[in-house]
Specification:
The structure holds two protein chains of two kinds. Chain A is of the alpha+beta class. Chain A has helices at 2-7, 9-28, 45-89, 94-125, 290-323; strands spanning 29-31, 37-39, 129-138, 146-149, 162-164, 169-176, 181-185, 193-197, 203-208, 214-220, 230-233, 245-254, 261-268, 277-283. Among the domains of chain A are: 45-184, Rod shape-determining protein MreC, domain 1 (Thrombin, subunit H), CATH 2.40.10.340; 187-271, Rod shape-determining protein MreC, domain 2 (Thrombin, subunit H, Beta Barrel), CATH 2.40.10. Helices cover 72% and strands 0% of the residues of chain B. The chains are: A alpha+beta, B mainly alpha. At the A-B interface, helix 2, strand 2, helix 3, strand 3 and strand 4 of A face helix 2, helix 4 and helix 5 of B.
Chain lengths: 400, 173
């Protein structure tokens, strides 16, 4: 046995390494409900430990390279500026040189600050609380479109927080370490975000393709979807707030796997390949800017004044009602007040007047059985039967 | 099977390096592999940990060392991605073993052989990677031949430049 292991130790080590890694892979992959294989969304403790080690090993040098490159770039630019100034000094006056140098420095500062200013402006105006972070590294693999931020759990970052720029969404925080975090870009094949097409209101899922382009998948074929249509976040994925710009539809292609479906290739609004600073949405509690807060306070004040005026008007009407004579009799108890009397009114007695009285008409005499009274209608009193007249005796009636 | 084992010439031609080189070169490769794509964007057609694995495996001519170094570098590469850990690990384990086994039998000082070896081993690594991803794990992965060929070519060119540089660090017995 010893001879066997001594002779084939290379192959034994190779097989041991392969088997160990295959077992490790099998523990990280599971079958989904749809029958597809998928990598566990949350890493196990062992896997997380390895990722932690790798991150701890690579992040500090990356951070160093990042800061050093910035310093070197600054030094190089300063050197170029100085050379430029020296050349100009040969031809121009000292004052003009100084002014030009200042102008160049200001321009340089403005160029550097412009991007940050835009970021800060957006951060101040944006309704949700965000945290700026710098991109310090990437995964280094074309199949894995992730990058690393210089902020981590100690700064308040958590998993599944949305990462955006003022231009549009970038991705989501996938893994958080103490002082760094891994962000999964929206153009990665494993990413997913709920989106909606602005004009057609078609909903779909955004994920990346092999070429690193984000595409909206899972949408039925629709002739109305054209290149140039804006794509926004739908807000249903519990990561990205609703209404954030994602990009514009670049082209629409047939889904190769399903006939009746199409895929919309999206040109992302954010420059995903040139990210330096990003914002991480750390809280989705609405946060209003000062001017909006002032508007709301003013609105509340006006609302209060309106209610106060209404109350005053009501009180005045009550006072007036008390003072005016009305249906309230102060000498009667409350239950006998005429205002509270609910009995129906007594109808007024009224005898209808016949238009053509005859002998059958109540109160008519036999002497004038058919004499029309209309001919004597000049006096209304003559037409009225005697019985109907107050103070007269009831005449004889002829029974029919 | 005997072609994959090595024991004949390594005793006389094995290279040795300071311990610092063993520690720093793989680390630098990992850091640069993580950082350079930020600068180069989609043109980062190379795999520096693979180049380092091939270099040390060819130089040391020890399949066990090549296997372990390839596996470790691959696992660290995987750990920097969101994918399952072990995919790159297996690919580079195989590459490390094969490079060391081949290194015993051929003259690895020749630049053309180095270039061709790195190119072929890069293609092999990509093939193993795709095989594990799509066949073994059954995961969805889109890839292109052109991209993998470009990466293999990039690795070969980098190997041509970096191998002579790393040769300066070798120590003589």
């Amino acid at each position: 046995m010893e001879t066997f292991f001594a002779r084939y130790r290379n192959l034994v080590v190779l097989l041991a390494m392969l088997v160990a890694q295959i077992i490790g892979l099998a523990m990280q992959v599971h079958r989904t409900e749809g029958g597809r294989m998928s990598v566990d969304r949350r890493d196990g403790s062992g896997v997380r430990l390895i990722r932690l080690w790798a991150n701890g090993l690579v992040s500090p040098p990356e951070r160093l390279i990042h800061s050093t490159s910035l310093g070197v770039a600054s030094l190089w630019q300063n050197y170029l500026d100085l050379r430029h100034v020296r050349q100009q000094n040969q031809d121009l006056e000292k004052t003009v040189d100084r002014l030009r140098l200042e102008q160049a420095a200001l321009l340089e500062d403005a160029r550097q600050g412009q991007r940050l200013q835009g970021l800060v402006n957006f951060q101040q105006k944006y309704i949700y609380k965000t945290m700026p972070a710098q991109v310090i590294g990437s995964s280094g693999s074309m199949q894995s479109r992730v990058f690393y931020l210089d902020k981590g759990s100690d700064e308040g970052l958590r998993r599944d927080m949305a990462v955006i720029t003022p231009d549009g969404i970038v991705g989501k925080v996938r893994e958080v370490f103490a002082h760094s975090a891994q962000v999964l870009l929206i153009n990665d094949q494993t990413s997913g975000a709920g989106v909606i097409l602005e004009t057609t209101r078609t909903r779909g899922i955004l994920r990346g393709n092999a070429a690193g382009q984000p595409q909206v998948v899972g949408i039925m074929a629709d002739n109305r979807i054209k290149p140039g249509e804006r794509v926004l976040t739908a807000g249903g994925d519990e990561v990205f707030p609703r209404g954030l710009p994602v990009g514009v539809v670049e082209k629409v292609v047939q889904d190769p796997e399903r006939d009746s479906f199409i895929q919309a290739i999206v040109k992302p609004a954010a420059h995903l390949d040139r990210l330096d600073e990003v914002l991480v949405i750390i809280s989705t509690e609405p946060r209003f800017p000062p001017d909006q807060q002032q508007d709301m306070a003013t609105s509340e004040t006006l609302k209060g004044a309106e209610a106060e005026a209404e109350n005053a008007q009501k009180k005045a009407s009550e006072i007036m009602a008390e003072r005016l004579p009305g249906l309230i009799d102060p000498n009667l108890p409350a239950n006998q007040q005429p205002l509270n009397d609910s009995t129906p009114p007594i109808p007024v007695a009224h005898t209808p007047q016949p238009l053509h009285p005859d002998r059958f008409t109540p109160g008519a005499t036999q002497d004038h059985p058919t004499e029309p009274q209309t001919g004597q209608a000049g006096d209304a009193g003559q037409g009225v039967p005697a019985a109907a007249k107050p103070g007269t005796e009831a005449p004889q009636r002829r029974q029919p | 099977m005997s072609a994959l084992t090595a024991n004949t010439r390594r005793a006389v031609e094995v290279r040795r390096y300071p311990v610092l080189v063993y520690a720093l070169v793989p680390l630098v490769a990992l850091v640069l592999q993580a950082w350079l794509p930020r600068v180069l964007g989609n043109y980062a057609w190379f795999d520096l940990p693979l180049v380092v694995t091939v270099y040390f495996a060819l130089g040391r001519r020890n399949p066990i060392e090549g296997t372990l170094m390839g596996g470790a570098l691959g696992i660290f590469e995987d750990a920097l991605t969101q994918h399952a850990i072990g995919i790159n690990g297996i690919a580079k384990t195989v590459v490390g073993f094969l490079a060391a086994s081949v290194g015993v039998r051929i003259d690895v000082e020749n630049h053309t052989i180095r270039l061709m070896l790195t190119f072929l081993l890069s293609l092999l690594s990509s093939a193993v990677y795709v095989f594990i991803f799509r066949i073994l794990l059954g995961l969805a992965l889109e890839w292109s031949w052109i991209g993998e060929l470009s990466k293999a070519l990039g690795n070969a060119v980098i190997a041509l430049l970096v191998f002579p540089l790393l040769d300066r660090f070798k120590t003589t017995d």
